[in-house]
Specification:
Blueprint lengths: L2 H22 L11 H8 L7 H15 L13 H16 L5 H4 L3 H16 L5 H11 L6 E9 L2 E6 L5 H4 L2 H4 L2 E8 L11 H13 L2 H6 L12 H8 L1 H12 L4 H13 L4 H16 L2
Antiparallel strand pairs: 1-2, 1-3
Length: 290
């Protein structure tokens, strides 16, 4: 199979199992780890999707973009968004305990490092339209949760992280005293609290969020990873159209007081002084509009 065909097939599988469910709010099923070399190589090709999938993805992205701006069309998913999607896939897989046997105990760190390289290559949006397109693709990323199921029976119990228990364990529930408990795990809580790589994973996720500034701002009320100003975000909010879109994105947050507090706290950490003054002015504008 030549490299171009393999890249197109990879994009197709990623769309069907990750991007389309993410946009619909459905069940995401990450692909096996992609890796930075494969992702960077694939992103160099034109990655057309089958007509049915392209139509679905296009309609869902337009619907989301229109919550911020009345657009009728968006550019198709481009190289940067593919790299962000590849990085998201591998960051999710970094928290998958079932892959330890395949890649070894160093698996999470290696996957995080590769995802970081993908995000470096994706960079920041260069135009307002680019930023709107990225948000249209990744706006629901913070809604991702993993369902962990604990199955207990009269002689033991077992935890299934992000997967369904086999039917044999839930058979004869009354006779075997089978109990099931499901717990939704938020995206930021997917790495185990004791994992040495947890902080690095959160930092890489923050980098993914900042690559889509409107998404970053729309979920600014989050606790982890903490919101931070970047040079790209300062530039984006200096653009009059970008500023209006940024304010609209923040208005959609469900916890406005926390959003205002997080924005102001992040502004105080900005360097240099000129950029900090801009960030503080933006935070003050949002606070005064309550």
């Amino acid at each position: 199979m030549n490299a171009a065909r393999e890249a197109v097939q990879l994009a197709d599988r990623l769309c069907r199992r990750v991007l389309a469910p993410l946009l619909r709010g459905g069940s995401v099923e990450p692909l096996p780890p992609i890796g930075s070399a494969r992702a960077l190589a694939a992103s160099e090709f034109d990655l057309p999707l089958p007509d049915d999938l392209a139509q679905l993805i296009g309609d869902l992205r337009i619907r989301e973009a229109r919550t911020l701006y009345p657009v009728d069309c968006l550019p198709p998913i481009g190289r940067a968004e593919w790299l962000m999607a590849f990085a998201l896939n591998d960051l999710l897989q970094a928290t998958n305990p079932r892959l330890v046997g395949v890649l070894g105990r160093d698996r999470p760190r290696r996957l995080i490092e590769m995802a970081d390289r993908m995000l470096d290559a994706a960079g920041s949006p260069q135009t307002v339209v680019d930023a709107l397109g990225r948000h249209a693709t990744f706006s629901r990323i913070f809604e991702l949760t993993r369902i962990d199921t604990t199955v207990s029976w009269w002689v033991g119990s077992e935890l299934f992280q992000g997967r369904r228990p086999p039917a044999r364990l839930t058979a004869w529930p009354e006779l075997r005293r089978v109990r099931r408990h499901q717990e939704p795990i938020r995206l930021a809580d997917m790495p185990p609290p004791s994992a040495l790589w947890r902080t690095t994973w959160l930092e890489c996720m923050a980098k993914l969020y900042s690559a889509s500034p409107l998404t970053d701002l729309a979920w600014i009320g989050r606790v982890q990873p903490a919101f931070r100003w970047t040079g790209a975000l300062c530039g984006f909010t200096r653009n009059p159209v970008g500023r209006r879109l940024a304010l609209r994105a923040i208005e959609r947050t469900t916890d406005r007081p926390r959003a205002v507090a997080n924005l102001a706290a992040a502004a105080r950490r900005v360097e240099p002084e000129e950029a900090r003054a801009h960030a503080e002015a933006f935070a003050a504008e949002l606070s005064s509009s309550r």
